[in-house]
Design brief:
CATH superfamily of the largest domain: NAD(P)-binding Rossmann-like Domain
CATH architecture of the largest domain: 3-Layer(aba) Sandwich
Strand content: 15-25%
Number of strands: 22
Number of domains: 3
Length: about 450
């Protein structure tokens, strides 16, 4: 495919790198000389210097009437640049356009995107807020992602030595717990990972990536860890930007009795937040101030979330909150290099809004045929894809065991007419089944082809 990417920041650089490695013809547009030079030196892409919303710059990148550009991805840090670039590209005949939108008002409804002819307009802040909410609600999970409109999730749990799941084979566990809608799709053991079979059993300290309904997530947490996340009573959020606002808003709606406090150093922003968040106490102050944190009850905090615009501050404040007694500390981190320091920094979880945006973009490129969500699990080089079995697919009426799916591909869950279940090998696929497909990255295209999607 011929693809134009606007913006060579963390997201644009990552997306351009991945797509270039997959063999696509990539042109990257960037106005900042330092970023442009870095992309030119490190990536196998064409770099055009300039503002991606200006017609002459876009024309130099190959976006003009009659062009053969297949896709434009606008992921700069400026909404107006992204939206205008998409608008120009659509009128020039570019087949598909994707825009990042940092302003939440652009994604409150699909109207903006539809009227501007934008195929996908994504706000990563919403995705990250959902992820943080799940980290706090299921505190033993070290990874989360949601599917089927939030009804299903992928959770990674560490097996404790006293877990009720120890000893029995996975096949027996499904028989012992027939009412649990859950499937272990991947196990990481002593630094090595594998897709388990029914004959495998769990060992202490295994990290298990598990697909389950969101309503049963805490039940699975108990089975894996012999502990249950208590009802959230107090959460402190540091940073009143878009992500902090989203986190506070979602937690306030989900937990009506929650003692929710949001700290920010900007007085004007605090005054605005106090008018918009009626379920949170807004505090003007420094999230690094030990006395302030102690006065606000950090030692009784079930969750401590740092969402400022500075990654280093988020990590450092997160470490301070954890040291002062917060049960779970979550930090927003945008830089990939810092995300790799998980084992060295005393926070319980890091979430990356850039990664959330890159995942949506990669789904649109790799699987543009109207499937649902995609989760790219970099830690284990795997993907989880939500898709629907179309009319006319050769797999309709076939048993899963007869599909010829290679090892490394699992149909983890099926949603059929509102009923969700973990399938067995003798279950038969039907037209319009919504399925959750787990696969290694290298095999996902093959899996999609076998299922007749796209």
């Amino acid at each position: 495919m011929k693809i134009v990417v606007i913006g060579a920041g963390e997201v644009g650089f990552s997306v351009a790198s991945s797509l270039s490695q997959e063999g696509h013809d990539i042109t990257l547009v960037e106005s900042d000389e330092e970023r442009a030079a870095k992309a030119e030196n490190e990536l196998d892409v064409m770099v055009v210097r300039g503002n991606g919303s200006r017609p002459p710059v876009l024309e130099e990148a190959g976006v003009c009437p009659g062009c053969d550009t297949d896709l434009l991805i606008a992921c700069s840090n400026h909404d107006e640049v992204n939206i205008l670039a998409c608008w120009i590209a659509r009128r020039a005949g570019v087949k598909r356009v994707i825009s990042r939108a940092r302003g939440l008002e652009y994604t409150d409804s699909p109207t903006w995107a539809r009227q501007l002819g934008i195929d996908v307009m994504i706000s990563p802040e919403r995705s990250v807020a959902r992820e943080i909410e799940e980290f706090l609600s299921v505190s033993a999970a070290v990874y989360t992602a949601e599917f089927f409109g939030g009804k299903v999730g992928v959770y990674a749990f560490r097996v404790s030595p006293d877990s009720a799941l120890m000893g029995a084979s996975l096949r027996d566990l499904r028989r012992i717990h027939p009412k649990k809608t859950a499937l272990i799709v991947f196990i990481e053991r002593q630094g090595k990972g594998f897709i388990p079979s029914g004959d495998d059993s769990l060992e202490a300290d295994d990290l298990c990536f598990t697909v389950t309904s969101k309503t049963q997530a805490q039940d699975m947490e108990v089975l894996f860890t012999n502990k249950k996340t208590p009802e959230l009573k107090r959460v402190i959020v540091v940073g009143g930007g878009k992500i902090g606002f989203q986190v506070a808003s979602r937690l306030g709606l989900r937990y009506p009795g929650l003692d929710l406090r949001l700290i920010d150093q900007d007085r004007e922003k605090c005054e605005k937040l106090s008018r918009e968040l009626d379920k949170a106490i807004i505090i003007h102050g420094d999230g690094m101030d030990e006395e302030l944190l102690r006065n606000e009850g950090i030692d009784e905090g079930d969750g401590f979330v740092t969402t400022t615009a500075n990654d280093e501050h988020n990590l450092l404040i997160g470490v301070v909150g954890k040291a002062l007694g917060a049960k779970k500390s979550v930090a927003v981190v945008r830089r990939e290099m810092l995300m790799r320091l998980t084992d060295y920094i005393a926070v319980d979880a890091m979430v990356n809004p850039n990664q959330a945006l890159a995942t949506v973009i990669m789904k649109q490129v790799r699987y543009p045929f109207g499937t649902g969500a995609l989760s790219i699990i970099d830690e284990i080089d795997a993907e989880v894809l939500e898709l629907t079995i179309p009319r006319g697919s050769a797999v309709n009426g076939k048993k899963i065991m007869d599909l010829g799916l290679p090892k490394g591909i699992l149909i983890a869950l099926i949603s059929r007419k509102g009923d969700m279940f973990v399938p067995w090998g003798d279950d038969v696929l039907q037209e319009n089944d919504e399925i959750l497909l787990f696969s290694s990255e290298e095999l996902m295209d093959q899996a999609v082809e076998i299922l007749g999607v796209g």
